[in-house]
Design goal:
This protein has 274 residues and is of the alpha/beta class. Helices cover 40% and strands 18% of the residues. It has eight helices and 13 strands. The termini are far apart.
Length: 274
C-alpha cells in the first residue's frame, strides 16, 4: 500500500480497536467482527455543517469531495452575501458547489437567532425566508432545519414542523439515532469537539454499523491550529472524513444526507414484515 492508503487503513484499525471490536485482516481488506461471526448490521453516517462558514467550504468540501463523502449543509440564508463582499459566511456560488457535489442544503434560520427568544412574527420569517431563499438560489426547497444554538422548545418545534420535514438538534441519543425509532422532530447529532480524537469518531462510525444505528455528526469551524469551542482541527476533520470514505467503500456503513437517510428509513418502516 502507498502511504495514503496505509494511513487510511491504520486509522480504521485504530478506530475498531478503540471500541473493542474484533478485526479480521484479509490482505489490504478488512471487515468488522471475528472469524465466523455473523455480519454486522449496516449503519448510516451523516456529516452535517452548521453556519455555512468559509472554512467548511475551503477545507470541508475539498476533503469531502476527495473521499466521495456527502452530507447536509445548514445555511443561515439572511447572512449569505455576494461573492465579492467580505464575510465569514459562504456566497451562494459556494453553496451551489455543495449542491453540485451531492450535498443537501438545509436551513439554519435566516439570521442565526435563538428561536425560543423570538416573537411570533420574527419566528415565522426566520422559518419561511430560508425556504424562499434556498428554493430560489439552489433550486430545491429545504426539508431539513437545524435550530441555531440548538435552541428549541415545544412551541418552536411546532412551528418548525409546519414548514419542514426534519429538525436537527444537539440533543437526542448523542447523535446515535436508533433505526427505526426516529422522531423527525428530534434528530440527534454528535458534535465533534476539540477533546475528541479522530479514532474515537471513527469508532463511533463502526459502532453504528455494529448496532444498525444512524450516526449524525456535527461540525462548525475547521481550523489549521489548535481548536477551541465550536472548532475542530483540520487534521482531525480530514482523518474523520477519510475514515468515513474508507468504511463506506468497504460497505461497513452508508454515507447519506439527512434527507436521503430519512427517506430510506421511512421506506424501510413501510415495508411489510414477513
Amino acid at each position: 500500500m502507498n502511504n495514503h492508503a496505509a494511513r487510511r487503513y491504520l486509522l480504521a484499525v485504530a478506530a475498531i480497536a478503540a471500541i473493542g471490536l474484533g478485526l479480521v485482516v484479509l490482505g489490504p481488506h478488512l471487515r468488522i467482527g471475528t472469524e465466523g461471526s455473523p455480519a454486522p448490521k449496516r449503519g448510516i453516517v451523516t456529516i452535517t455543517f452548521d453556519d455555512a462558514g468559509l472554512s467548511q467550504y475551503d477545507v470541508g468540501l475539498r476533503v469531502a469531495r476527495a473521499e466521495g463523502v456527502v452530507g447536509t449543509l445548514f445555511v443561515p440564508t439572511g447572512l449569505v452575501t455576494d461573492a465579492n463582499e467580505p464575510s465569514w459566511v459562504m456566497s451562494w456560488d459556494q453553496i451551489r458547489d455543495f449542491r453540485d457535489a451531492g450535498w443537501e442544503i438545509g436551513a439554519h434560520g435566516a439570521h442565526h437567532l435563538p428561536m425560543t427568544q423570538l416573537g411570533p412574527t420574527t419566528m415565522e420569517s426566520e422559518l419561511t425566508d430560508p425556504i424562499d431563499d434556498i428554493g430560489a438560489q439552489i433550486g430545491v426547497p429545504p426539508v431539513s432545519f437545524s435550530s441555531p444554538f440548538g435552541d428549541f422548545n415545544d412551541t418552536t418545534i411546532t412551528r418548525i414542523m409546519a414548514y419542514y420535514d426534519y429538525q436537527l438538534s444537539w440533543k437526542g441519543h448523542g447523535g446515535r439515532n436508533p433505526i427505526p425509532d426516529i422522531d423527525p422532530r428530534y434528530i440527534g447529532r454528535l458534535e465533534v469537539i476539540p477533546a475528541m480524537s479522530s479514532a474515537e469518531v471513527c469508532g463511533e462510525m463502526v459502532r453504528a454499523a455494529e448496532t444498525g444505528t444512524w450516526l449524525v455528526l456535527l461540525f462548525h469551524t475547521i481550523v489549521a491550529g489548535e481548536p477551541v469551542a465550536y472548532e475542530v482541527s483540520e487534521a482531525v476533520y480530514t482523518e474523520v472524513v477519510t475514515c468515513l470514505g474508507l468504511l463506506t467503500r468497504r460497505g461497513v456503513v452508508e454515507n447519506m444526507t439527512v434527507r436521503d437517510a430519512m427517506a430510506l428509513i421511512t421506506a424501510q418502516e413501510r415495508m411489510p414484515t414477513q
